Amino acid sequence: MDGLSAATTKKGRLQRACLALLREHEEAGAIPTSIRFLFYELLDRGVIPKVYRDENGVEKKRTPSQDISDAVTVLRELDTAPIPWSWIVDETRSLDDWRYAESVY
């Protein structure tokens, strides 16, 4: 698919894995979903590790979840956008108390 990273790169493989998984979700009627849910499914399938580690076994700051978020963003921003923005939700965030102005205007 045009716009994705090369299929032989880490980014390209993850973008394609996310696209395939999201299409599975669409077929199963499981849309919208979340990055966290995609993370656990890709972890369970062995596509990604739980954490990244350096050559000494020390956990890296960059996380696989961040890479999934980046991959899904690429899928959403393509000209032919195979993944609508509405397919991904973040159920962990909410606005409970607006303390600034009555409106954005």
Keywords:
3 helices; mainly alpha; globular; 105 residues
Structure explained in plain terms:
The protein is an all-alpha fold. The chain has one domain (10-87). The protein is built from three helices and no strands. Helix 1 crosses helix 3 and helix 2 (35-44) crosses helix 3. The model has no long low-confidence stretch (mean pLDDT 89).
Secondary-structure topology with pairs:
Layout: H1 10-28, H2 35-44, H3 64-77
Helix pairs in contact: 1-3, 2-3
Number of domains: 1
Choose one word for the global shape.
globular
| Helical content (DSSP H or I, runs of 4+) | 40-55%
Strand content: under 5%
Distance between the termini: 40 Å
Main sheet properties: none
Number of E-type strands? 0
Order of helices and strands: HHH
Estimate the mean pLDDT confidence: 89
Rg on CA atoms, Å = 16 Å
Question: Could you write a compact summary of the structure shown?
Answer:
This protein is mostly helical and 105 residues long. Helix content is 41%, strand content 0%.
